[in-house]
């Protein structure tokens, strides 16, 4: 039941920023280059739907220091007391819980029950702090939880969640996490996509990521990796991949989308990914560190390891393959920055780290060669 919402996690869209921080609203030269890279007249009629992640607040007018969102009837109360990074203000939105349909609640109920059954089935193979955090989160199995209810559960951790819609740029995602704010998609997948969501999805974010926020070593590593990602150098191709992924997600979410347009959108994503594979930026490389640790990581020793990655924890059917003879499990090292990932299928290999200290060692090794930029709005990290 892997959700494509892993694609909007730190660098999972491998989205980018230049020194001037490209976002979906960017009109600068690099933003224009990114749009030219993915531009296609055949796909242009889907641009409006594909851009909801950046323009979902248009009806409320652009946020000014968060004031518009704080005045919104659906705004989470914590925004009145905690500053959202400037780079994220146009992407954070009210959950609008009352707008969820009974069908969306049914999708939530179906997936949560299915996942909880899988957690019970594979309990001995899962990272125990995840199981403990799942209990601490106390998910409502019947109805989609409200953002306020989630934040009440997260309060003891020092973290909180905000709602976003669809894909958001990786630097925006990273800067939120570096400030202990988890960006959670408000979207619930369509029943037709119950096993795989073509766009970022609430189920993956809540079920895969939030339970481990109760585990202090995990939070610290996640926050440090996010801080580095928020300051990483990028190329216009990173932003081009963000735009291409966003467009592809809009097409795949439309049951009536012509197959030739879907194929063309997939081809654009593949083309940009191939370029980034051959010419990776710092943002791309740190995205891969995130993927192979936070999304698909294993922890322990070769003879005794547990599943930790959110992409696996929200798609527990893949866990069985990890414990079959011949599973390709490799030691985690800085070499993961050269290894790309498959979003729509089981991985060909997985990476195992023995401890968070090993993850920190890899970050130390990578940080030593980074061209870190000043001006990151990250507090209390590194």
Can I get a quick summary?
The protein is an alpha/beta fold. Helix content is 44%, strand content 7%.
- Provide the CATH topology: Phenylalanine Hydroxylase
Q: How many β-strand runs?
A: 6
Named CATH architecture: Orthogonal Bundle
The termini sit apart by: 35 Å
Helix content: 40-55%
Reported for the largest beta sheet, the result is: 4 strands, mixed
Q: Which strands sit side by side, in order, in the main sheet?
A: 4-3-6-5
Contiguous helical run count: 16
Write the CATH homologous superfamily: Aromatic amino acid hydroxylase
Q: Which CATH first-tier class would you pick?
A: Mainly Alpha
Poorly predicted ranges: 1-30, 48-75, 374-382
| Average of pLDDT | 79
Order of helices and strands: HHHHHHHEHEHHHHHEEHHEEH
Strand content: 5-15%
Radius of gyration: 19 Å
InterPro entries: ArAA_hydroxylase, ArAA_hydroxylase_Fe/CU_BS, ArAA_hydroxylase_sf, Aro-AA_hydroxylase_C_sf, Aromatic-AA_hydroxylase_C
Protein name: Biopterin-dependent aromatic amino acid hydroxylase family profile domain-containing protein
Family: Belongs to the biopterin-dependent aromatic amino acid hydroxylase family.
Organism: Sorangium atrum
């Amino acid at each position: 039941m892997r959700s494509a919402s892993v694609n909007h996690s730190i660098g999972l869209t491998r989205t980018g920023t230049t020194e001037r921080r490209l976002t979906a609203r960017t009109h600068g030269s690099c933003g224009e280059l990114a749009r030219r890279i993915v531009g296609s007249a055949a796909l242009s009629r889907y641009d409006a739907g594909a851009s909801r992640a950046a323009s979902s607040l248009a009806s409320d007018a652009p946020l000014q220091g968060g004031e518009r969102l704080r005045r919104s009837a659906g705004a989470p109360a914590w925004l009145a007391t905690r500053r959202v990074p400037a780079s994220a203000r146009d992407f954070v939105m009210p959950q609008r819980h009352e707008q969820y349909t009974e069908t969306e609640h049914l999708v939530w109920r179906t997936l949560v029950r299915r996942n909880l059954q899988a957690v019970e089935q594979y309990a001995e193979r899962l990272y125990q702090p995840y199981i403990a955090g799942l209990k601490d989160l106390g998910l409502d199995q019947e109805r989609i939880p409200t953002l306020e209810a989630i934040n009440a559960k997260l309060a003891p951790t020092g973290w909180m969640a905000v709602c976003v819609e669809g894909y958001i740029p990786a630097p925006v995602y990273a800067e939120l996490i570096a400030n202990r704010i988890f960006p959670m998609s408000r979207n619930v997948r369509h029943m037709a996509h119950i096993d795989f969501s073509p766009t970022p999805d609430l189920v993956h974010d809540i079920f895969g990521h939030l339970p481990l926020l109760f585990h202090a070593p995990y939070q610290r590593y996640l926050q440090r990796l996010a801080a580095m990602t928020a300051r990483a150098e990028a190329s216009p191709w990173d932003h081009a991949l963000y735009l291409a992924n966003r467009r592809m997600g809009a097409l795949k979410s439309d049951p009536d989308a012509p197959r030739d347009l879907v194929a063309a959108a997939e081809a654009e994503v593949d083309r940009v990914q191939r370029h980034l594979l051959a010419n990776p930026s710092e943002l791309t490389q740190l995205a891969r560190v995130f993927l192979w640790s936070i999304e698909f990581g294993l922890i322990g020793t070769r003879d005794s390891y547990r599943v930790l990655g959110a992409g696996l924890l929200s798609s527990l059917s893949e866990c069985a393959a990890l414990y079959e003879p011949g599973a390709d499990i490799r030691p985690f090292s800085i070499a993961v920055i050269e290894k790309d990932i498959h979003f729509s299928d089981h991985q060909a290999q997985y990476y195992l780290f023995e401890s968070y200290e090993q993850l920190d060692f890899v970050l130390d090794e990578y940080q030593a060669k980074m061209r870190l930029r000043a001006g990151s709005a990250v507090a209390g990290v590194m």
